[in-house]
Amino acid sequence: MKKAGLLENSARGIWALTNAQIDIFKVDTDDIVRSYRESFKNKTVKTKTSKKDLQEQTEEELENKEDWKENLLNILYNITPAAFERLAQRLLRESGFFQVEVTGKSGDGGIDGKGIVRVSGLLSFHVIFQCKRYKGSVTPSQIRDFRGAMQGRADKGLVITTGTFTREAVKEATRDGAPPIDLIDGEILCDKLKELKLGLSTIFTETVEINTDWFKSL
Q1: Tens of pLDDT along 102-152?
Q2: Total structural domains in the chain?
Q3: Residue 26's domain spans which residues?
Q4: So what's the pLDDT on residue 204?
Q5: CA distance linking residue 14 with residue 127, whole number of Å
Q6: What is the CATH number of the domain that holds 72?
Q7: Contact predicate 101/113, CB 8 Å
Q8: CA-only gyration radius of the chain, Å
Q9: Is there a domain that residue 191 lies in?
């Protein structure tokens, strides 16, 4: 299924459909097996194209590398709300949550999904999450509304946004005596996607330095 491009798996062993619209009941498994065996028979060695030397990169390319978070956020701004909810689901699964579901029901107080996180294999916490895909800042009133929706339904809340949180919203999320709500802003979201290699890959370059003094000492 992976060779056929229908499934993908991360380094953490989490499997997912490459396209959420795939109807698994219409997949011809015999055809997949036949195609795989045929490709295995006719397997040829392919040469990899050489990468551009680091010294040939223009200043513009180097600047773009530094702006990867901004570029990523611009992509996230333009995906559908449903796609962003599925991304949040995948993010939580890759982070160790299980039974993660996207609910996204209208009139449900802004609750977009739920999941369970287990600590040290002993304690389990039910978590409800909300997704906010926009450039603005989440306000304390939005945090209070979300807390009201999660009352009696979860142990913790989680708000994931591509934007930021106001200082008052951060205070409201950690207010004494109120159910705790964890916050993931756009900056943290980018870092987590990079860490989990979800839609991103990091390329390292090798630099070789010659120690001329060492050779002169021979």
Answers
A1: 986 655 668 999 999 988 878 899 999 999 998 899 999 999 999 999 888
A2: 2
A3: 7-41
A4: 83
A5: 20
A6: 3.40.1350.10
A7: yes
A8: 23
A9: yes
